[in-house]
Fold these 2 entries.
Entry 1:
Amino acid sequence: MTYIAKPKMHHPALQPNAVGFTRRDYEGRISTLCAGCGHDSISAAIIQACWEMNIEPHRVAKLSGIGCSSKTPDYFLGNSHGFNTVHGRMPSVLTGANLANRELLYLGVSGDGDSASIGLGQFAHAMRRGVNMVYVLENNGVYGLTKGQFSATADKGSASKRGVANSDSPVDTASLALLMGATFVGRSFSGDKGQLVPLIKAAIGHCGAAFIDVVSPCVAFNNHSGSTKSYDYVRAHNEAVNRLDVIEGRSEITTDYAAGTTVDLQQHDGTWLRLHKVDEAYDATNKIAAMNYIQEHQARGEVVTGLLYVDTNPEELHANLKTVATPFNQLGEAQLCPGAGALAKLNASLR
Amino acid sequence: MRATDIKSPDYFHKVVDCQWACPAHTPVPEYIRLISAGRFADAYMVNWDSNVFPGILGRTCDRPCEPACRRSRVEDHNAEKPEPVAICRLKRVAADHKGDVSARMPHAPTTRNGKRIACIGAGPASLTVARDLVPLGYEMVIFDGDPKAGGFMRTQVPRFRLPEAVIDEETGYILDLGVEFRGGERIDSLRELLAGGYDAIFVGSGAPRGRDLQVPGRQEAAANIHIGIDWLSSVSFGHIETIGKRVIVLGGGNTAMDCCRSSKRLGGDEVKVIVRSGFEEMKASPWEKEDAMHEGIPFLNYYVPLSFEHENGKLIGMRFDKVKAVYDERGRRSLVSSGEAPEFVPCDDVLIAIGQENSFPWIERGLGLEFDEWGLPVLDEKTLQSTIPNVFFGGDSAFGPKNIIWAVAHGHEAAISIDRFLSGVALSERPPAHVNLISQKMGIHEWSYDNDISRDLRHIVPWAAAEQALKSIRVEVELGFDAKAAFAEAQRCLNCDVQTVFAPPLCIECDACVDICPMDCITFTENGEEADLRTRLTAPAPRLDQDIYVADGLKTGRIMAKDEDVCLHCGLCAERCPTGAWDMQKFLLEMPQARDGCATRAPVRSAA
């Protein structure tokens, strides 16, 4: 952490975006995490993505659980709504908030402990239901706040800082999200903003449950030679399947890549995702193939990154529940509580 | 780009824009920090060592440091007119608040080395030479036609800008070292002086001739037409105490500003500054123009003098042709008559302040001292040696009119040359600058400098009440910062001498520095040519005069590129660095002086 606040002075060339904010306006308070924490880079990537997407800060709700990762919403989007929930319960609170006001952008920020241990059930059900959200899992493989015990995402056989090998199998949250029905699944690395920022932007544009697993090295407890979540290990074993450009609006799509190496996918909100294939055989729209691919490479100790799967016609919670288009929090009492007569009519229809 | 060689003393020196711009390379941030700490005497001595006349310069310097100041490029909430740190006036603070520093002054050694050096003119250049050489054992004899030392600092700068007591004090520190000062002895012959048995001669006689304006009526109305610098000198010595009610000052330089403001105090009610060129092209420093305008003096631009008008042998006014600036396709300007009828401006006196020239009537031709086509002595630019090996030049007499701080810089160089010359060492080899780079880390979040930058706008120096200031030429207009305002102004300094030093082998490329940097200075990227690299940094780096700090040897094969241009030196990159790859290290440059370079001491270079 740092004692002085980040100076307000900024680069003379700093530009406002279409809604009048500079990138600095999307910052939060100064981070109290350890110097060099991967989580701070993820915060910076979220700031960059929101600025580029012209997001109005007051239309964003940040929700998190408990842990180093769950502290980070304090360090970005300082003018957005925030909710720091009970440990592992962020998905429930997010789902409830989303039901009450479907018009906000929901940003769920969690860690490997919060999502893969205490909150594993919550995580799975939020994906199942197709809650319209961006769920960012800041995955460092250890419990940093309690001095570096293995978390549930630590790879079997990887060593702790003191050299003890992990004997438990890891929870692979990307595979789990796919299995549970998430309609957008990506994985990235905090040290590669060139990959991470477009992934976050694409997830923001996705109308459904979007999940990004971000490997984020813990410099204090999990950045040593026996770790599989260190800067060096991830850089050496990073198997990117594609690179992503997010093209907003309906501007004409032109390509200067060789045919067959680029795929353009239009999301429901009109944004185009341009995938530059790194692995020629990889098809990000084929869920079963994606699951196989991830598992095969995982078995070889590789970290598969990129946009792993996207459903361009996702189903989401509100559509499934057939809720009205107007957010609940804007409806009046008469509409929300139509009275005993309406209840009697409903009951009668079910007899 | 090739990796930056941070061992080169110039690299980090350039980052300290103010120090780099200063001819004497005064360590500006170092003394500003001392002022913040209330260590005024220490701040004064840092200055005195480097620029010799802190009290005088703190009031009169042309301050090349201030336009260079990084603050004026990064002050965000003042985009209309970002202001540099008031470096010059902080120097005055050190002088005003220092107390008694006489005990800290050097002394002449008890036994002299038997070598005698004559200095011609007692201005800043000669006094600097004397200050540097007396402690080494030389006997210095300074001649000046005026009874008191100081040269143009005393004769030309009006008392309302520079009180006599300050000149007496600072020339006194040097004369008291044990210099033989021969005031009132004008040197009329270099031949005689050369025969006088001096081992070396330093010429610091300035550029003492004011340029005249020969248009019709000049002779007839001569009684009320004055050469600006001569008139200022007469005012300074009390020979002139009044001027007519209506005064025209011709010229747009700092001398013109001194002339018009002086006239205002000696009875000139209607004082006008009249200039051939446009306002922007006037050579006076912006702040001097502002000060004159503040005192209600109008500037008439694009007026070319046609004649002095007179009746019965008395000046009644001047006629001017009104012109406009026309630029040709190559951007060269010419002044073309507007075609309007000439304008008559009535006046009682005219002061001509249109430039100064060198003048060496006392140097006989045929002695072997060569002059160039402009009448300036032929000199070795670095050593300041003339074509007579034991005659050296400095200040305005060397390369034409400049300013006090340049004279001081010349004085230091000439002193080195004279010392080497008289020690029988080659002059072309100069003693190296001493460079020190020291980590400022005191603890996990503790630095030995205050890295929390003040967002204050530039503080205004208080002035004496206008009616009181204009009543007498001896009332100093500027009152100087008090200790509280000085502290607040000093806190605006960005500490550019505390350098961001990067150690690639320690870096794990976690991006923490990139994310925290408030100015988006830092980038990790693939290497490339400079022109290409400058466009693809985190923020574009268009100022080519500001370096990109490039470091290679990173694990991923990328480079670290830092744009020095807008760095706040806040140290957050170093605070957020988990491995200590970034460190904040204070760059301290000790410019060579005569004491470093003589034959008895081998040049030493400390770690850089």
Note: The longest strand of chain B covers residues 314-327.
Entry 2:
Amino acid sequence: MSAMRVLCCLDGVNAEVLGQALARLWPLAGDQLRVGLLYVIDTRPLGELERRRERFLRPPHLPPVRQEQLRQAEREAAQEILQEGARYVGGAELLQREGRAEEEIVRCAREWGASLIMLCARSPRNGGGPEQGPASVGRVARFVLDHAGCPVLLLRGRFSVETTGAS
Amino acid sequence: MFLLFPLPALTRTLLTALIALLTLVGIMTRPFRWNEALIALSGAALLLLLGLISPLAALQTLLGDWNVFLFFLGMMALSAFADQAGLFDWLAIVAARLARRKARLLLLNVFLLGSLISMVLSNDATALILTPVVYTLVTRLRLPVIPFLFACTFIADTASFLLPVSNPINILVLSRFQLDLWTFVRLLWLPALAAIAINIGVFFWLYRRQVRGSFDPKRLPSAQEAVKEPGYFRYCCLVLGAVGVAYVVASASGFPLSCVALAGAALLLVGALRWRQFRPRALAGHISWSLFGFIAGMFVIVQAVEGTGLTRLFGELLLHLSGGSALGAVLVGTLGAALGTNLINNVPMAVVLSASLQALHGQLSPTRELAFVAATIFGCDLGPNLTTVGSLATVLWLLILRQRQLDVSGLDYFKVGILVTPLMLLVGAVLIWLLLPT
């Protein structure tokens, strides 16, 4: 029996929920379960900044010092989120990507050889939304459902954003 | 060259109008991603080459607008020096500390900080320098980036008519109309405050689910960390404070604001040299040289169009649409300016509208002229909030991308813009009308 490779998509606030879901899968898959934790640094806000600069007739790229500061903050936050995820899922492979979250999840799943993608239906960081109905599935989850080459497990439920980076 | 072969007036008018129109369409669509400055300068060069404006008239126009050019330079230099001193980073950290761990309070503080920076250092400084600083800060705090990013970009324009120096567009318009500081403040402060309040209120409602909870202040860098050289930082704060006061005094007394901005920049340059903080490359990177070409090109084109009497016709059309009332003047001025800034860009729109209104000087009652001028400033300043880059063409492009299932944050921006901007424009326009002298 080949290993079951589960790609869990972190969004900064869902590590606990993913950990709980994996705990239910573990008895079924046993030793055959391989877990990858993925966090994608979203590059769209940076694109927004660049468009804004163009409106003010500036070259789109930020000054190098600012760009470096920003990138470093993003990388540090990503590492922290992955380490938090690893606390809930011991032995998981940590994967970090940059780009549009939805596209990177599909690409990473293909490259990593995922047999299941696990992600939340909608991140509370992107507006929460209703628990049922079409709007309960966010655009990232919708894109992954439409384009992934393997089964996708959507997780629903409320998560507390109070924990986001709180001491 | 047509100067040597006199053309009939109608042919000159048609040729000038065609070149002006093609230039505006070029700025709107930016074929092959050409720079706007290149397009504007090409249009101006073509007019000069065809003799549709004389070199002397073009030169006189550019020299006559020295205050605008030098203000742009001084304003950008001031922001650049303040950035090098670490002022923006320091202010953002202080704003975060004052938020007492609450994400919503931080959003409010970002709005207030953006308003303050726009008021004194112009919308340019908020949109271009404060935004990446706030982006980095909220990323470190692990808060959702988009609400804070949009807060900075929106407030840059929303708070840009608190003072004449808050937006270079104001200087552009005021270079043709002598509006004293008291009149400016009396007509535009209340609409500005109302627009800021609406902006904040709508954002809090829109992002009520994303922006909530608390953040860990331990993630914040210390305020001292942001300051590279404490001596220069203190000196910079002192100079900027003095510049702020000087701006108000100069606006009130009719002294050229460009002189204040340049004097402030010169003082900061001296300080940067004294504390060995002068970095010419970083400074040059902050200055948009193409902006000067863009404005120069637009000034020459509009001057040529003015010579044909077309701007006067456009002004008369605005007057006709206004129905002869002050309320009509405010509404037509605001709507026309706001739509125009999104079709082309707010710089050419402000130049075209000011020229058209100036052509009507004497034909309008003082109240209606004031209504049109205030509405032009208001519409040109606030209008760009409607679309992500002040261009409907870009929005159409974004919509096409959307159809191809590519998600773009530009569309998110448009969704917020279409919700909040018309409301701010309407409330502000009505307030301007109510504040007009009877």
Note: Chain A has a mean pLDDT of 85.
